[in-house]
Structures are given as C-alpha cells and as structure tokens.
Amino acid sequence: MIEIENLSVRFPGFALQDICLKVAEGEFFSLIGPTGAGKTLILESIAGLIKIAAGRIHINGQDVTYVPPEKRGVGIVYQDHALFPHLTVYANITFGIRYHRKSGALSHASLDLLISRLGLTHLIDRSIHHLSGGEKQRVALARALAVDPALLLLDEPLSSLDPNFREEIRQLLKDLHRETRISVLMVTHDFSEAHFLAQQAAVIHAGCIEQVGKVTDVFQRPATPFVAEFVGMKNIFPATFSGRRAYIGTLALQIKDVPNGTTAIAIRPEHIRLFNAIPEDQPANLIEGLISQVSNQGVYSNIFVDAAGTQFQSLVTTSDLLAMNLPPGSRIWMGVDPEDIHLMDGN
What CATH number should be reported for the domain whose range is 2-226? Predict the structure, then answer.
C-alpha cells in the first residue's frame, strides 16, 4: 500500500535519514517517537507537502515521489485541525472535493452518510468558532475522508484534546478503520494510543527508525535502550553475563535466555513485585533494598528502590501501596521472574 524507500529530508539542524517503511493495504500503522523526532516530516513527505532530498514514495504500487499532493489520493488530519475559520462546517468538509474530482470523491449520498456517521449532521451550518475540540477534530476527519482517499494520514490527532474528547475520537478512529478498512498511518508520541489503535508500529528517534514490528513486539521486546525507555520499561541496566545469569554490579539475576551479543537488560516496572518480608514461595530472583522515593500518580504509584547501588522502579496500585504501608526508608524485597528480564544490545 505504502512503501517508503531510503527517504531523506534535510532542514537546517535536522535531517531524516534513509527512512524505509511499508504499510500494508487496510492496515493501521503507527509511527511513534518523541517531539522533534521527524514524525510529521514523514507524513508531509508522503502527502507531497515538502521537498525531499532523496528516496522514493510508492502508494498502491504507483511512484508518487514527484506527483502533486492533490493527485496522490491522500487525506491528512493535523493535530490543530487546520480548519478554515471563515467557512462553515459543511464548507470545510467539502473544500477539498473540487480538487479531487478526477481522482475520486464521495458521492453526495456517501458524503451525507459520512457526516452522519461522524455525528456532524446538526452542525453543518455552524461556524468553526462555535465548535468544541472534539467537534473540530471530527470535522477535520470528515474533510480528509470526503475526498475518498486511498490513505489517511493522522498527525497527533488526539494530543490537543482534553481526556473526554480524546477517548471519544480514539474510539471513533478505531470504529472507522474497522468499518472502512482504509489504510492509516498515524504519528503520535503516546505509545498507549498506538497500542489501542495500531497493528504495526515504528519507533523513530532523531530522524532515524529504531525499530519496526507488531505493536505488541515493540512493547514487549524493544530492540534498543531508547525504545525500551519510550515504551515504559524504565529499568534499563548495562550488564555482564555468565550462562543464564545477568550481573548488575554485585547483583546476580537469573534470566530465561542465553545471551547472544547482549550488553544490557530491561525490566518493566509492573513486573517488579514488592514484598514486606521474604515470601514463603520465593521468586527466582529476590532482591533486598530500601525505598528511596514514592511517587503517587493517582490510580498507580511509582516506587523507587535502591539495592546494592542500583535504583529500580516498580509500579503498584495506590491501594496496594496503602495496604502495604511503604513510606520512603522502608526495607523491601523485590521479586522478578526470569521471563520478565528482557535482553538487548545496550549500544
């Protein structure tokens, strides 16, 4: 569906370097990474909105590298909606149709159905100034879909919305994709959004792709320390190995796999279990330490534990934290199963 080959884009102080990506037909693909990583530049390159330095872009088997934006069969939705403030909702939705007559646009009946599906029928004559954030985002989606694109590009579509609208639009995107099977490429800095919406994901950092794969694989088996940190592993340590043991300073941990070129380990905070005392049924790895910090995040709390000169981070429900009575300075035991210790190249 989409194939990007060795795409490079250069601006003063920043460059995309040899980006290679494939998005299958009907797939929801998420490009994730921190602010300033180059995510939006990739979208705008696909849409034909910026000049590329090198590489090729194919959509549905056609080389569109130098095809004008209006002839690429692409719809794009920006995080700030990019609506025309002087036009009504309906005029905004239908604005692009005049430029896509030859490449296809929805019929009048299909357009009415789309407007109804997005819950905009009662708003079509309203000014953009009188819409909520969620309503504006639905108008932006309708405008992008009105031209019947082969590909929908989403640039941080949820980041500017408050939590209630964010949940609404997120579910709407999931439902629309399931119903239409349109190919979608979404960029986001929020891995939870990718986890909810996408089947495949790529992680980008400083203009380079760090890892591509199924969302679950990226989440559970990050390839680099950056990806591990980005998907929330937090406990990332350089290590040495002997057989099925990993050594972090003086701490020895049993691991499931035999290392092969591995130089680091990573453990998700939620996989570190906490005990007030040595449990009768001891886990394979039991580590004694002292709580150095407790950070209440609402439903969950982050517990920082110092053990033999190494700081670990555990994630527990706040109700469990209260039940265990774990203030800073408390002695604690941490349990980690070997299968929850992820091996990676630390470089």
Answer: 3.40.50.300
52 in Cβ contact with 4 (< 8 Å): no
Q: What angle do CA 297, 303, 308 make, to 5 degrees?
A: 160
Residue-level pLDDT, tens digit, the chain, 347 residues: 899 999 999 999 899 989 999 999 999 999 999 988 999 999 999 999 999 999 999 998 899 999 998 888 888 888 777 788 888 999 888 887 766 544 455 666 678 888 888 888 888 889 888 888 888 888 888 888 888 888 999 998 887 777 777 888 888 889 888 888 889 999 998 888 999 999 999 999 999 999 999 999 999 889 888 999 898 898 999 999 998 999 999 999 999 987 887 889 999 999 999 999 999 999 999 999 999 999 998 899 999 999 999 999 999 998 998 898 888 999 999 999 999 999 988 76
Chain centre to alpha carbon of residue 310: 29
| Segment (H or E) for 302 | strand 300-307
Distances (CA, A) of 35 to 38, 48, 180, 205, 270: 8, 21, 30, 9, 26
Is the CATH number 1.10.10.10 carried by domain 233-344?
no
For residue 29, count other CB atoms closer than 10 A to its CB.
Answer: 24
The residue extents of the domains of the chain are 2-226, 233-344
